[in-house]
Design goal:
With 458 residues, the protein is an all-alpha fold. It has helices spanning 2-15, 18-34, 38-41, 43-49, 66-77, 80-93, 97-121, 135-142, 146-179, 183-198, 201-230, 235-246, 261-276, 283-287, 295-324, 339-348, 350-383, 385-403, 411-431, 433-445, 450-453, and strands at residues 124-125, 131-132. Strand 1 (124-125) and strand 2 form a beta hairpin. Helix 5 crosses helix 15, helix 7 runs parallel beside helix 13 and helix 9 (146-179) runs parallel beside helix 18. The longest helix has 34 residues, at 146-179. The radius of gyration is 21 Å and the shape is globular. It is a multi-pass membrane protein. InterPro entries: Na/Ala_symport.
């Protein structure tokens, strides 16, 4: 059994090395060019249409507001990867990995824009009158490949069981270490609280996430901003460290062992993709429920999600870790998971440790909340509405089992199962590239949308 698990770990690491990163990079660059570099040409307009319109009544029809759809999608992406993944990238790839994290985020925006536009375009109403959509719907309706939609749906539904167990384990161990509360009690409490929300559907999830996500992001990023203002003089050094190591091997510094240029790029890309989930097909399920008058307008919110997740929250973590110098400590290599906590504690003492712990708890709970909704949508697509309630119960039980450590054997399978979701979704995006282009051209040339917003109608 140990030999098999070791083989799974090695295969998983190789798969998520050059093969998948190469496919994602090609797909992201291809769609960026196909869409005329949309994320670079219209940043101010996109900002005005998203965060600049939070308090305006949305046009069109949908189940939740565009902001609620974004916070639901962010609940899934903003998590342990932002707190634990960034220092791991720095320790194994050096400070230059942060630059490549930014690069893959900018390129990934085209993929997230595409999948979200397709999700809204091909969405439909379920038995409860709620809008539902996502890769399984655009694979079925857009490509006429229901088999591909079933593959994606079934793989995601199964992948979420060990994923939720791992999330349950991370929150239970964090709470046990910080507050000495038994893991089982944490698992049961989290399962009950999440159950109350998820059985209320996307409307209740949206109502909860629109409060929790900004709150948890403000606490965490707010703490990082305080550190930034305390160390404004270190800002040039921060960027110098990142840019000077982005294109050359990271040198040995203190306890940091250095890294080859190939590792700098690989770790930056891998952690960036893990964090923002561009091309994975999960976020479009949240965006499909949004109230909007055109698929492209909602897809702008998907671009905004990457800005918040990677460009703001991951960068905040990187600044705290690099400016504190903890990444060069003697034993830093052996404790990448705890580096962010140590970095915050070096500035704020015990308050810093508590801030990271509380942020992690909020991040993980909100992630579980939304991925259970994603899993329920797969069951609904495959077997109907009643099946979605049954799988939600399975997921809630998985939280409790995960909390007491039952997921450890499944860790190695997670990345392989993620690949079985990612590949069919990227195939679908590339095959539907002309539809995405058509929707984008329609939005920017029609007098009902972009031209009207810019006051260029006749």
């Amino acid at each position: 059994m140990d030999g098999f698990l070791e083989w799974v770990a090695v295969f998983s690491e190789r798969l998520w090395g050059y093969p998948l990163i190469g496919i994602l990079l090609f797909s992201g660059i291809f769609m960026t060019v196909k869409l005329g570099f949309i994320q670079f040409r219209y940043p101010i307009y996109i900002f005005k249409q998203t965060f600049g319109s939070v308090f305006k009544k949305p046009k069109g029809e949908g189940t939740v507001t565009p902001f609620q759809a974004l916070t639901s999608a962010l609940s899934s992406t903003v998590g342990a990867a932002n707190i634990v993944g960034v220092p791991a990238a720095i320790m194994f790839g050096g400070p230059g990995a942060v630059f490549w994290m930014w690069v893959i985020a900018l390129i990934g925006m085209a993929l997230k824009f595409s999948e979200s536009a397709l999700a809204v375009h091909y969405r439909e109403k379920n038995e409860q009158g709620e809008f539902v959509g996502g890769p399984m719907y655009y694979m079925t309706k857009g490509l006429g490949m229901k088999w591909l939609g079933i593959w994606f749906s079934f793989a995601l539904m199964l992948e979420l069981i060990p994923s939720i167990m791992v999330q349950g384990n991370s929150i239970a161990t964090t709470v046990e270490e910080s507050f000495n509360i038994p893991a089982l009690w944490t698992g049961i409490t989290v399962a009950v609280l999440i159950g109350i929300v998820v059985f209320g559907g996307i409307k209740r999830i949206g109502q909860v996430t629109q409060v929790v996500v900004p709150f948890m992001a403000l606490i965490y990023v707010g703490g990082a901003l305080v550190i930034l203002f305390m160390n404004l003089n270190m800002l040039p050094e921060f960027f110098s460290l990142i840019f000077s190591n982005a294109f050359s091997p990271a040198p040995v510094i203190g306890g940091f062992a250095g890294a080859a240029i190939v590792d700098v790029i690989r770790w930056g890309f891998a952690r960036g993709l893990y964090s923002n989930e561009a091309g994975l097909g999960t976020a479009p399920m949240a965006h499909a429920a949004a109230t909007t008058d055109h698929p492209v307008r909602q897809a702008f919110w998907a671009i905004g999600g990457i800005v918040v997740d990677t460009m703001i929250i991951c960068t905040a973590t990187a600044f705290v870790v690099l400016s504190s110098g903890v990444w060069t400590n003697e034993n830093a290599y052996e404790n990448t998971n705890g580096l962010t906590t140590i970095a915050f504690a070096s500035y704020f003492g015990n308050v810093g440790s508590i801030l990271v712990t509380v942020s992690l708890i909020f991040f993980v709970i909100s992630t579980i909340l939304v991925v259970i909704f994603y899993g329920a949508k797969q069951a609904e697509f495959l077997f109907g509405l009643k099946a979605s309630y049954a799988i939600q119960v399975v997921y809630l039980v998985a939280i409790v089992f995960g909390a007491v450590g039952a997921a450890e054997v499944l860790w190695g399978f997670l990345d392989i199962m993620l690949a079985t979701i990612l590949i069919p979704n990227l195939i679908a995006i590339l095959l539907l590239r002309n539809k995405v282009k058509e929707l984008t051209t329609e939005f920017f040339t029609s007098e009902k949308y972009y031209l009207k917003d810019k006051g260029k109608t006749k």
